[in-house]
Write the structure tokens for this entry.
Amino acid sequence: MALSSAVAGSSEKTDRVVDVRPAKLHRKLVVAVVRLYELPNQWISKNATSMEMVLQDQEGDRIHCSVDSEHVGTYKTLISENNIYSMKNFIIQRNVQPPRTTP
């Protein structure tokens, strides 16, 4: 995933979160990181198994994003909560598991 801080006045067309589909190969989003957290490894507390984010575009649409364990180290220093980023060259996968709820 290519990542850069969003710059106001950019003339490059961006996609809306609501229009993102797995079949579309080229996409660019400008989103705010609304929530960012790491899921810890159950055996080694220093390592994270994934980095989870909730991203929101300027229209208010949200999407969940995961960074797997092999890339957490790279993006941990680049992405922070409550900042706006331009993201492109990433993979979309359909979530086929039902949401897990607690009482």
Observations:
- The longest helix spans residues 69-76.
- DSSP finds one helix and five strands in the chain.
- The chain has a mean pLDDT of 80.
